Amino acid sequence: MLKGAQVRYLMKESFAGFHRRKLTTGVTILIMGSSLLVLAVLTLATLNLDHLLAKARSSIDMRVFLLESLDPGQVAELQPRLLVIPGVKEVKFISSETALHEFRTSLGQDAGVLDFLETNPLPASYHIQFTAGARNLDSVRQIRDEIAAWPEVAEIIFNQGWVDALEGWSARFRMANLITGLIVFIAVVFVISNTVKLTMAASSRLIQIQKLVGATNGFIRLPFLCEGMLQGVLAGGLAMGLVAVASSFMQNRLSGMIFFSVEQIAGFIMFCMVLGLLGSWSAMRKYLTLQSEL
Amino acid sequence: MKRIDPREQEPQDPRAVIGFYHVDLAYKDQTALQNISFTASNGEFLCLTGPSGAGKSSILRLIAMDAFPTKGQVIIRGMLASKMNRRKVPLLRREIGYVFQDFRLLDDRSVYDNVAFAQLVVGVKSADIKMNVMRVLTQVGLWNKRHRLPRQLSGGEQQRAAIARAMVNSPKILLADEPTGNLDPVNAQETIDLLFRINDSGTCVVFSTHDQQIVKAFGERVIVMNDGRIASDIKRKTMVDRTANLTDRMYQPGELINA
């Protein structure tokens, strides 16, 4: 258990390492910050795509157009059949008259063109909305395939293309994020490891004397671990700060763009801290043995 | 079946603070020590001498458990090196003080901080650190220069600061590796006087030197090393006069007998 004086010493030593090697530490933080910036940007892009995807998913619906030859009784029979399909939340009948009225409304001033029509070309349809669990391409496709097999159905449409594209992009960004994350992980650990090795080489006399007077390896390691963690936190903070500035400019141009939540920022900084810790640890595994080189 | 080396069966001296029993030490392919056996008790002042590469530093490394024997047994303060849990080595080192030819002080810290550092590392309370540092710096005559950096001190003063650091944790064993090597005779005498004072308080001092004049003048018990072996282990018949000055002692003939 560390005593008060030891804790004060360890804190002082961790910051002293920064002070003694301002340039090395500054360059290290800049290099790490740039690597982490790439990761932060990709993560933010994935986050925004996920957000868009969630919105798109919530608006997934389906129009089931019916054959014109159906009589009202046959049309009415379809509603309960649709409602019992798993994943279907709500079914609304839209008659051909209502469809024409909606179409006329949507045309606004140009609605006059419809006056030339002798008959209503729009078929009656059912507008289907899905439960939250079924708002994904697989479920919707399954439901579509089931309904498409019914003889009363003329055509089915849903906003597949848009959702398809978003899901594709989201998957690609996730993969890019994973690969970048791995590369950044290795790069940052490597950079911190080398910086800590430099720090340890510069502190070799201090380490040697600590060993001679009976310091445990844990006691010797702690300031270096703290230094690595601090470097990780500062580099992560730098990357996050730059992303925040860039995203505040972007938000003026891209409406609906979201930024990291406080928890996500804290998580990112924690991740950077762990990277710093791992970097320091890997540097020390080879450097610190019992030998004091008497 | 594991064959037991008959040399490991020898009884050990229970009074010994340092015990070497038929010790071999090899670094990779190179043999550093061969069949070394000696013991040293509390309050003993032991001179280790011999030419460079004779194995003096290897013996000090074994005592500090900075190296471990390839054969035989090393027992330090009742702890057997071959069975020592490596995590406990720092605890043993807290009972050993070190003094080196090159002082090994931290250049960016004051004399006070250099000495206090040894206490801080082992977890002594702040208030006790102040008391202990004041005590040892007063003993070595450096209390007035406690705020100075090592480079602002003479060689002799730096060595006294290093001795204060070695003393502050009240070690049971003090290892001095060529402590007078960089010093003029006056400062060498001051250093040896301090080592004698530490020895008077019951600490076993192992003093390694290749300076034959110093060995002749101060050696109470002298182990002569040659080519990794003990060439002789001899004890002076009459005690040296620890109060005489260096020049007097240099010319004191001293009679040596086999230990």
Task: Describe the structure concisely for a colleague.
The complex is a heterodimer of chains A (294) and B (259). Chain A has 294 residues and is α+β, with helices and mostly antiparallel strands.
Report on the architecture of this protein.
- The complex is a heterodimer of chains A (294) and B (259).
- Chain A has 294 residues and is of the alpha+beta class.
- In chain A, 70% of the residues lie in helices and 9% in strands.
- Chain A is built from nine helices and four strands, in the order ααβαβαβαβαααα.
- In chain A, helix 2 packs across helix 8.
- Chain A starts with a helix and ends in a 7-residue tail after the last helix.
- Chain B is of the alpha/beta class and 259 residues long.
- Chain B contains eight helices and eleven strands.
- In chain B, the strands form two sheets. In chain B, strands 6-7-8-3-9-10-11 form a seven-stranded mixed β-sheet, with helices on both faces. In chain B, strands 2-1-4-5 form a four-stranded antiparallel β-sheet, with helices on one face.
- The longest helix of chain B is centred in the C-terminal third of the chain and has 16 residues, at 185-200.
- Chain B is globular.
- At the A-B interface, helix 1 and helix 7 of A face helix 1, helix 2 and helix 3 of B.
Number of alpha- plus pi-helical segments of chain A: 9
N-to-C SSE series of chain A?
A: HHEHEHEHEHHHH
Q: Could you tell me the mean pLDDT of chain B?
A: 85
Unreliable stretches of chain B, pLDDT < 50, 5 or more residues?
1-9
Radius of gyration based on Cα positions of chain B = 19 Å
Oligomer: heterodimer
Low-confidence stretches of chain A: none
The residue fraction in helices of chain B comes out at: 25-40%
Ends apart, CA distance between termini of chain A: 28 Å
Instruction: Summarize the main sheet of chain A.
Output: 4 strands, antiparallel
Estimate the helix proportion of chain A, in percent: 55-70%
Percentage of residues in strands of chain A: 5-15%
Structural class of chain B: alpha/beta
Largest interface here, residues on each chain? A-B, 24 and 34 residues
Shape of chain B: globular
Mean pLDDT of chain A: 83
* Range of strand content of chain B: 25-35%
The number of E-state strands of chain A comes to: 4
Series of secondary-structure elements of chain B, N-terminal to C-terminal: EEEHEEHEHHHEHEHEEHE
